[in-house]
Amino acid sequence: MNKGSRGFSRTDRVNEQIRRDLADLLQFEVKDPRVKLVSITAVEVSPDYSHAKVLFSSLAPVDRIPEIAQGLKAAAGFLRRELGRRIRLHNMPELHFEHDTSIERGASLSKLIDEAAELSRQTPED
Q1: Nearest Cα to Cα of residue 99 among 122, 70, 79
Q2: How far is the C-alpha of 89 from the C-alpha of 56, rounded, in Å?
Q3: Cα separation, 27 vs 39, whole angstroms
Q4: CATH top-level class for 10-101?
């Protein structure tokens, strides 16, 4: 992979810039109440820059995730247009939002580890 002067590829820099700008736009520009508790955790742009998978997490209850995803999908055109004004790319990627479950999985694994550790403390050793 072609690395720049700082050791990051152009794609990595574009991913990070889109992530930062989307977070800013969601916080300050999007008025849809469905997307107010959303954090953009990662962006993965396709090699030809035509599509971008945008991973999001939320502090909202899990049953509200589909509603949040619909809000993000509804805002995708606006967000893409605004990104085009902020970032100079030949083609601004089409945005595809997906819920990032890694935070929930991490919390679940941490809880399981804590429970196993507590159980091992309660079990007398031979």
Answers
A1: 70
A2: 23
A3: 9
A4: alpha beta
Cα three-residue angle 91-42-12, rounded to 5 degrees: 55
Residue pair 20/43 in contact (Cβ under 8 Å)? The answer is no
Helix (H) or strand (E) holding 1: none
Is residue 95 exposed (0-12), middle (13-18) or buried (19+ Cβ within 10 Å)?
buried
Give the DSSP letter string of 77-121: HHHHHHHHHHS--SSPPEEEEEE--HHHHHHHHHHHHHHHHHHHH
With beta carbons less than 8 A apart as the criterion, state whether 26 and 60 touch.
no
Q: What pLDDT does residue 4 have?
A: 47
Q: Within the chain, which residues score under 70 in pLDDT?
A: 1-7, 125-126
Task: Give CA–CA dist 62/46, Å, rounded.
Answer: 28
Q: Where are the domains of the chain?
A: 10-101
**What is this structure's pTM?**
0.80
The shares of helix, strand and coil residues in the chain, as percent rounded to the nearest 5, are: 55, 15, 30
